[in-house]
Amino acid sequence: MKKQINLKKYLQSGITLLKKNEPVVLTIIFLGILADIFLISGSSDPKIFGILGLYVISIRLYKLRSRLTFIVSLLLLGIMFVEYVFSGPSANTEKAAVWLVFFIAIGIIQQWRE
Amino acid sequence: MNLFKTQKFYLVIIAFLLFALPFFWLKPGEMDLGGDSSRLYFYDPISYLKNASLYSVVPQGMGAIEPNYYFLPFLIFLIILKFILFNSSYLLISVFSGIKLVLGFLAIYWIVKALSHRKASDFISSCSAILSGLLYIFMPTMTGNWDKALMSHNQVFLNPLMFYLLLRFFITNNYKYLWVLLMASFIFAPNFALTSAPPFFAFYPLAVLFLILYVAVILKKKLSWKGIIVGSFLFLSLQSFHLIPQIISLFDPGSFSNVRVFDKESIAHEGIRYFIGVLPLAKASVNILLSTIVKDFGWLSAVAPLIIILGFLLNRGNLPAGRQGDKIILLTGLFFLTTLFLLTANITDIGVEFYKRLFYIPGFSMFRNFIGQWLFVYSFFYSLLFGFAIFNIFGKLKNRSLIIAITFLIGIVITIPAWPFINGSLVNKVHSGSKNVRIAIKMDPNYIKTLSFIKSLPDDSKILTLPFTDSYYQVIGDLEGGAYIGPSTISYLAGKKDFSGYQIMTAPFSEKFMKLSREKDYNGIKKLLGILNIGYIFHNSDTRIYDDAFPASPYTYMRTSLPSSQNKYSEYIQKIGGSVIFENGPYKVYSVDKNYYLPHFYAAKDLRLDKQELPKIVFRKINPTKYIITISKAKKPYVLVFLEAFHPDWKIFIPDSSLDDSKSTFETLGMKSLSNGSHVLAHDYANAWHIRPDDVGNRQNYTLIAEMTGQRVFYVSLFLSVTIFLVSIVWGIKLFILKQKKLI
Fold first, then answer.
1. What are the backbone angles phi and psi of residue B477, rounded to the nearest 5°?
2. Most buried in the list B17, B34, B128, B475, measured by CB within 10 Å?
3. Residue B319 pLDDT level (bands cut at 50, 70, 90)
4. 3-state class (DSSP) for residue B519
């Protein structure tokens, strides 16, 4: 019983912390995406789904609009295109493409619900 | 003056230009007939119908059983069209390509217009629909593979056309749309046959789901289930002439389709392993960017995805005619992403693992070449999404002139990368591996005469076509530097079974043929030709189809064992063949050494018995699935050998009295036949039956009928299809003419 109360408490304080630090959280998400594309090599499923999960939580917490998601998609398209022009369909290009696909999917679902 | 201001004027101009385009790809008189399945039906649809579509026996090689009945209505359509077009194959090919382009473009135009149209925004919906249609038709997916196009390439226009007709039917409940859809599906039956299952199942389930969601969720209308049930029944009945025989073949243990669909080993081998092999080629970025083949204009590939994302950004509440239409772009977006995943597979490791699991669903292994199978569907949803996105962008613009200017600009941006397609260089290509030999040909008059001669040869024998190719191709040169490479014209046009390559002779015999040739064992080759019922050798000694002109494909593997030049081939044939019986230009027909030749039907000694006197056998071919065999002086048991590919449906029937000719199609129904136990494999590929005197009522002179009983299923299902077709024609007259008169 005590443990449950503690867990709830931690969750609430975690959410409060997240709520108070919107710019920091969003910066972490975007830097995380850039790091995954440019710096981290190899399979990155846990990172991708971790960051996407954080972004979905952010949408609920900060009431983010689909507009932001599509703006990020636009940036990801730019990154993917530049990578494609210079290195063809390389690993980095493909990672940008995967991120783009997920952001378009999130944007569509968001817009449907708005 | 007003005419120039209407969107219809520009639509007609674009449609006319698209229709005219293929007339410049080939020179008058030229044809592009080659490829894996060939387009010999453009050259001679009547012979193609007779030899490749009416009977289940494959016209090539050993005569395996593979029903291709689905070609029937399409070939009849081509025969009529060719007759209208002054019997010109060039015109037929050009008109057919033109129809594909125009219908592909118009159908996408109509869909975008129907889904985005509001009275207040008719102008912008027309502009968006035109651009969407242009993007679709000029996408790399659509501009590729026009040379050597398979029947599945008809997806270019069939997918959007069928989608549009279904859409109109779902929205209006007007049966005229359903009728047109049914007739189009009947004519293009090859695209709805089991052999076309991958493109069919890739597109239609998704298309129908999209339309149901659109009508039920977005329009919030009730679906006409009655219409859907009637339509499905008529569709299946119309297609029954090929579907029923193919479904039976599907459940025939060991058949090609049965193994592909149900055999676990085959699923693992041909499904997942093939999928893993193709996987590295699948690139999400390439699919999203629609990368152009014109390298100088690579930057243009970002335009379409950029417009799509801008379209999403400007979607909500930005439509000039209210918000009703905004969910259509979202629905299309979801289908776009679904097909992108199915096309790419390579989206996260979890995605790949999930995809692999799908192959354990019976039949899913048909998507093992997932890139090829999903590309058309993806391109379709991509174009629609592009159309709705640009509609949203135009909705933000107030200035009509600006919209026109942007439409022209984007139209040019879409068209430029397709320039190699527009000017025909993507269509009239050079054969890969050849020295500047083009795929367009004018049929050599000498070869036409040779084909006529081959047609006149007795039905008894098969033909060996040389030079021998690696696959099942035959190569024919023309007088202007082109060459046909595709399935044998001797089989499909002259109706004589021939062995033109390694795959047709099939592996154990091909390997033996190669080994004997390497070892210069000419007697061994003669024996092998005899076993395969080869009575003639056709040698195309044209150096432009061998020697230096084709240093590699399609002869790479065969050159390791067979003669390396035409001169050496001539010497080789002298050693394995008999005498020349026909010669015209580079084309020669030889008869083989009769000492080694085995007829199509012959009596062999029953090895279980000692001294035997073999009966005399004479046979008459009624059609490729039925022969009447006259036996005389059969005093003892013997083995009747039939040199065609073994199949349990080949049966020997025993009529009570002697026959000279076939009395009726179903005369063998209820007739006594030899037991299945007497049917055995001969020479490792052919049919043979042990026949004892008591099997035939102890007669010495009698008649037998050899029949491929599977063919009966076709006759019955054809009757059903034709009946429903005639009913549909009457229904169409009522729908289009009688109701029209009532309105007047």
1. -90, 160
2. B128
3. very low
4. coil
- Residue positions counted in chain A: 114
Distance CA A52, CA B138 (A): 35
Task: Report the phi/psi class of residue B475: left, alpha or beta, with left for phi > 0 and alpha for psi in -120 to 50.
Answer: beta
DSSP secondary structure string for all residues of B132-192? HHHHHHHSHHHHTT-TT--GGGGHHHHHHHHHHHHHHHHHH--HHHHHHHHHHHHHTGGGG
What whole-number distance in Å separates Cα of residue B721 and Cα of residue B709?
20
Which one-letter amino acid corresponds to residue B285? Answer: S
User: In terms of DSSP H, where are the helices of B506-565?
Assistant: 507-518, 522-531
Is residue B552 within 8 A of residue B433, CB to CB? The reply is: yes
Q: What is the chain A residue with the closest CA to B302?
A: A81
Q: Specify the domain boundaries for CATH 3.40.50 within chain B.
A: 445-592
Tell me: the pLDDT tens digits for B193-203? 988 888 999 99
As a whole number, mean pLDDT of residues B54-61 equals: 93
Q: Is the dihedral of CA B100, B105, B108, B110 positive or negative?
A: negative
The 3-class SS string of B372-412 reads: HHHHHHHHHHHHHHHHHHHHHHHHHCCCHHHHHHHHHHHHH
Residue B554: DSSP 8-state: T
Find the range with the poorest average confidence among B79-88, B253-262, B377-386, B633-642. Answer: B253-262
Q: Residue B131: which residues within 8 A CB-CB, separation 6 or more?
A: B386, B387, B390, B407, B410, B411, B414
Look at residue B609 and tell me whether its pLDDT is greater than 90.
no
The minimum CA-CA distance between B665 and chain A, rounded to whole Å, is 59
pTM of the model: 0.91
Closest CA to B113 of B123, B104, B103: B123
pLDDT at B327 over 90: no
Quickly state the pLDDT bin for B170 (edges 50, 70, 90). very high
Give the separation between CA B390 and CA B258, rounded to whole angstroms. Answer: 46
Cβ neighbours for B295, distance < 8 A, ≥ 6 positions apart: none
Fold of the domain built from segment(s) B445-592: Rossmann fold (3.40.50)
Interface touch A101/B309, C-beta < 8 Å: no
Q: Is B42 exposed, middle or buried (0-12, 13-18, 19+ CB in 10 A)?
A: buried
Chain A neighbors of B333, CB-CB under 8 A: 104, 108
User: Smallest CA–CA separation between A12 and chain B, in Å?
Assistant: 31
Alpha carbon separation from B477 to B467, B544, B741 (Å, rounded): 12, 6, 56
Taking the CA atoms of residue B118, residue B119, residue B120 and residue B126 in that order, the dihedral angle to the nearest 10 degrees is 70
The two tokens of residue B363 are: 């039949």
Q: Which two tokens stand for residue B282?
A: 């699948």
Q: Which two tokens stand for residue B579?
A: 């005498």
Tell me which residue range forms the domain holding A73.
2-113
Q: Please say whether the beta carbons of B590 and B539 come within 8 A.
A: yes
What's the Cα-to-Cα distance from B61 to each of B406, B532, B595, rounded to whole Å? 58, 9, 22
Encode pLDDT of B276-309 as tens digits: 888 888 899 989 987 665 566 667 788 999 999 9
Strand B686-691's sheet: what is its strand order? B601-604, B638-645, B686-691, B679-682
B167: CB partners within 8 A, 6+ apart: B111, B114, B115, B211, B214
- How much of chain B, in percent, has pLDDT values that exceed 70? 92
Structure tokens belonging to residue B307:
């417009």
Spatial separation of the C-alpha atoms in residues B389 and B148, rounded to whole Å? 34
* Residue A21: both structure tokens together: 């630090």
Which of B291, B303, B313, B385 is the best residue to mutate to test the A interface, defined by the most A CB atoms within 10 Å of its own CB? B313
**Interface residues from chain B to A (CB-CB < 8 Å):** 283-286, 288-289, 291, 298-299, 301-302, 305-306, 309-310, 312-313, 315-316, 327, 330, 333-334, 337, 340-341, 346-350
What token pair was written down for B500? 């033109």
